[in-house]
Amino acid sequence: MADPRVAAAPAGLRRVLMIAPTSFFADYGCHVRILEQARGLAARGHQVVLCTYHSGRDIAGLDIRRTPALPWRRAAEVGSSWHKLALDFFLFFLVLRTAWDMRPDVLHAYLHEGALIGAVVGRLLGIPLLFDYQGSLTGEMADHGFLNPRGLAFGPLLWLERWIDRRPALILANAEHSARLLREEFGIPSGRLRLVPDCVDAGRFMPAETTEVVTTDAGARRVVTTSVVSEGPAGNAADAELSQLRRDLNIPPNALLLVYLGLLAPYQGIDLLLRAVKALDPALRAHLLVMGFPNVERYRQMAGALGIAECVTFTGAIRYDDAPRLLALGDIAVAPKISATEGSGKLLNYMAMGLPTVAFDTAVSREYLGEAGVLAPASDADAFAAALTRLIQHPDERRERGCRLRRRALELFTCERSIEAIERAYTAVRSRASVG
């Protein structure tokens, strides 16, 4: 029975305890998904508490509970790490204590470590568990170079992954590719899966101007361009700010700008991206803006060794709130990720900004970009360069593809749609718990 001292949530609203075994908030990947979901649920009146590691940045308006710091490890954790075993030990007891005090209606867990913690706490306290699935545990560990797919540890960890995947009442898959992987590779029944794609706040990530085809009352079709930067002094100030930002970053004034936003690692395709830039004809005057971390110095040295140091600018880590204005500098977005199991939320940021996008041909890239994206054969740097060259040489195609991607983001990937899908999942598991 629920603790009678804890007030029930208003009808239709839920007390939600999120479990995030990561250094939330950092400005990348799954953290953005967690942030947008937590913000969206809180904005609709749900009580949201998030348990996470000691490191990370607090977010105004979110109730974040943190583990104690490890005496020997205070840095943020990115990717796989043995230090996470100790952090997850502390996180388990934090979640257990918070759940006992809060008596949530549902546990909403991220990453497999979070699902494992949630499975034990949920079983102890009789709370249904949802697992927000963003990719394979063993696949991610192999991508990060932390696990050898042919090593002795791979089999036991794959067994553990399968066991964890069978614990939640429902799994929220971030892409149809992920749902298919769970069905076909891990044997999860379709009835225990819900599709909740990554989402984007299209009111913050938006282009300086949008172009769309409209139909008049007489049935004629015409192209209309609408500026979202106001005309007059405000619009001039915005243009001046972007021009100044470009100068601050030492980007040549006549360069066509390629933009990348995300983590810097081989599985993200950064090595291939730099080789693709090397393969571009210098006459195209392309410049690459790389926004992200870690390994900045490693890739700066690689750009120098390739002889393209003057064609690449590395910003290092940037704040998520600054991403829209930095992406607004771009002419073409690049998404060279080669991981076959993870999502790629950055694609939605590019799409909402109306940026024509070149990506490697992966299942997630096809699912998100549709026919409006430009896809190159996976892991082929020369093909990626050829795709970039085509877009650089055809500005009309760039505008047309950018407009289609913006419309696709608005139609399929808004945060409102994702939050509504999550609410339906909460209702479903609570209904099952009541019947049980």
Question: How would you describe this protein?
Answer:
Helix 1 (29-43) crosses helix 15 and helix 8 crosses helix 13. The chain has helices spanning 29-43, 83-102, 111-125, 137-143, 154-165, 176-186, 233-248, 270-279, 296-305, 323-327, 346-352, 363-369, 381-393, 395-412, 415-435; strands at residues 15-20, 47-52, 63-66, 106-110, 129-133, 170-173, 193-195, 209-215, 221-227, 256-261, 286-291, 312-316, 332-335, 357-360, 374-376. The protein is globular and about 65 Å long. Helix content is 43%, strand content 17%. Strands 3-2-1-4-5-6-7 form a seven-stranded parallel beta sheet, sandwiched between helices.
Keywords, please?
single chain; 436 residues; alpha/beta; 7-stranded parallel beta sheet; 6-stranded parallel beta sheet; 15 helices; disordered N terminus
Give a short summary of the structure.
The protein is of the alpha/beta class and 436 residues long. The chain is 43% helix and 17% strand.
What oligomeric state do these chains adopt? Answer: single chain
Global Rg: 23 Å
The helical percent reads: 40-55%
Strand content: 15-25%
Global shape? globular
Mean pLDDT, rounded to whole units? 88
Instruction: Report the count of strand segments.
Output: 15
Strand order of the largest sheet: 3-2-1-4-5-6-7
Strand count, sense and closure of the main sheet?
A: 7 strands, parallel
Q: Uncertain segments of ≥5 residues (pLDDT<50)?
A: 1-9, 211-216, 220-235
- Compute the separation of the termini in Å: 13 Å
**Helix-strand pattern:** EHEEHEHEHHEHEEEHEHEHEHEHEHEHHH
**Category from helices, strands and their pairing:** alpha/beta
